[in-house]
Amino acid sequence: MSAAVSLRARSARALSWWPAWLLGLLVLAAIFAPWLAPMDPDRQNLLARLKDPGFETRGATYWLGSDELGRDVLSRVIHGARVSISVAVLSVLLSGAVGVAVGMLAGYLRGWVETVLMRLVDIFLSIPAILLAIITVAVLGPGFVNVILVLALTRWPRYARVAYGQTLAIADRPFVRLSRAMGAGTPRVLWQHILPNIAGPLLVVATLEFGLMVLFEAGLSFLGLGVQPPMASWGAMLSVGRNYIATAWWIATFPGLALFLLVLSANMLGDRMGDVIGKGR
Amino acid sequence: MLRFLLQRGGQALVAVFGVVTLVFFIQRLTGDPVLLLVPETATEQDIEAMRVSLGLDRPLGVQYVEFLFDMLRLDLGRSFVQNAQVWDILLSRIPQTLQLAAGALVVALLIGLPLGLIMALTRGRAISRAIMGLVLAFQSLPTFWSGIMMILVFGVWLKWLPPSGTGTLAHLVMPSIALGLLSLATYARIMRSAVIDELGKDYVRSARARGVTTGRLVRRHLLRNSSIPVISITALELSQLLAGAVIVETVFAWPGLGLLTVQSIASRDFMVVQAVVLLGAFVTIAANLAADILYTVVDPRVRLTGKA
């Protein structure tokens, strides 16, 4: 009996983490895109342009319809997950690494390092992120790598703030002072003692930032400043779909839905993680 | 109080100076800012002539100091593409963006604050969780998608509202909602935690013990005492709205600063792009400063601790 109860309780708990499952599913779809997608996302078929969802031709079915060049929307949505997720992951890693390093140094070394670095953070935070991203792309030019660089440049201060505050809170703890007294250098203290202890809140920020990065990439691509065609990006698909909204609603609807689900799962997961960490404290 | 104002104002000035410097160096990320200003068809000679006429052949330090002085005089320069003063171009677009931001703020406040209040009062119950889910969903909605979907449903299918453009109040409805949803989520969450904070305080418990009804409690005490975080977050939201306008204006062909930015990038009008970014940053800095000052005015306790 008790086994059944605990099983139910356990499955209920597993279900309450549905954002993690959904996120995992989307990541899997991105990884296995070439095997999952029914068609080549870039193959054009000018005889099958702007067809309704479910349209069939010569044995192939366009389950989510076709776009203005006769490409399969479903295949492009699946491949779009690759672009979205890889840009978001890479920019989170890059901005996180820079931001955390800056924040920890400022919080641990204090003094003029703290003043200079944290003022720099303030300055970056006074430019609305999307505007900073836009002006930088306008200078560097669009493209996959540039988008990642720009997003990292725009978002590192967020991590710096959190890492700074967390580091301040534990830098004076006995175990940190002890290790310093025993001759550990700054890199060693930061890496071995401080980083593991501030990782939790940083992970929450990174998860929320992941959702934001997905939105930013799609936004830049929507404005034509992101990933360039023919690479399948949800934002770029939405931009095309907007022009065909009166005649072919599916072109914009499905990539947007995928985008929404990805961002929603990341935000919900970040929220849950925040709750759990908050309780643990 | 005066010390606080001076200190806070000084910080804002440092931020302004930093932003100007940052923008100056971003211009030079590719090494040659002239390439940002000339049309793609320009010949070598055109580019060289432009470089000399703009003084971009001089040492970087000289250019930087001159850029600082231009900013001090609030001189944003000329647009070579539109052949007009950048200020005039901006001024012609600002009213539309303000309208849109105001519309979005109305949507966010009118819906977000009540939702936050309900969430706080029904904490722990299913309805509170349901609203929180809704709020999180709003937060995750890409504005360009929600905007396009609204155009599809209300503009194309139902034909209730004009799908894009400007002119009447009806034109303002969909862009305001699209832009306002994100701020709505922020307000709902802020309001929720502010009210929950207040609910835990002694005066609320003793008022309840005296038999004060929830409605009266909300009207007389909770709303007023929860207003401080709401005010300070509004300053931050203003700059969010300005940034969000870039995408919403593009979706709805709304001729404000956001659409101007996107058009200027397409037409390689870098002076205008730079001006919008600077404007956005200055508004953000000013709004933050205003929030901090308001904070001390509304809540004298902040002054005692000396930190806002």
UniProtKB/TrEMBL annotation, chain B:
<keyword id="KW-1133">Transmembrane helix</keyword>
<protein>
    <submittedName>
        <fullName>ABC transporter permease</fullName>
    </submittedName>
</protein>
<keyword id="KW-0813">Transport</keyword>
<feature type="transmembrane region" description="Helical">
    <location>
        <begin position="228"/>
        <end position="252"/>
    </location>
</feature>
<comment type="similarity">
    <text>Belongs to the binding-protein-dependent transport system permease family.</text>
</comment>
<dbReference type="GO" id="GO:0055085">
    <property type="term" value="P:transmembrane transport"/>
</dbReference>
<keyword id="KW-0472">Membrane</keyword>
<dbReference type="Pfam" id="PF19300">
    <property type="entry name" value="BPD_transp_1_N"/>
</dbReference>
<feature type="transmembrane region" description="Helical">
    <location>
        <begin position="100"/>
        <end position="122"/>
    </location>
</feature>
<dbReference type="Pfam" id="PF00528">
    <property type="entry name" value="BPD_transp_1"/>
</dbReference>
<keyword id="KW-0812">Transmembrane</keyword>
<feature type="transmembrane region" description="Helical">
    <location>
        <begin position="169"/>
        <end position="188"/>
    </location>
</feature>
<dbReference type="InterPro" id="IPR035906">
    <property type="entry name" value="MetI-like_sf"/>
</dbReference>
<dbReference type="GO" id="GO:0005886">
    <property type="term" value="C:plasma membrane"/>
</dbReference>
<dbReference type="InterPro" id="IPR045621">
    <property type="entry name" value="BPD_transp_1_N"/>
</dbReference>
<dbReference type="InterPro" id="IPR000515">
    <property type="entry name" value="MetI-like"/>
</dbReference>
<feature type="transmembrane region" description="Helical">
    <location>
        <begin position="272"/>
        <end position="298"/>
    </location>
</feature>
<feature type="transmembrane region" description="Helical">
    <location>
        <begin position="12"/>
        <end position="30"/>
    </location>
</feature>
<feature type="domain" description="ABC transmembrane type-1">
    <location>
        <begin position="94"/>
        <end position="291"/>
    </location>
</feature>
<keyword id="KW-1003">Cell membrane</keyword>
<feature type="transmembrane region" description="Helical">
    <location>
        <begin position="134"/>
        <end position="157"/>
    </location>
</feature>
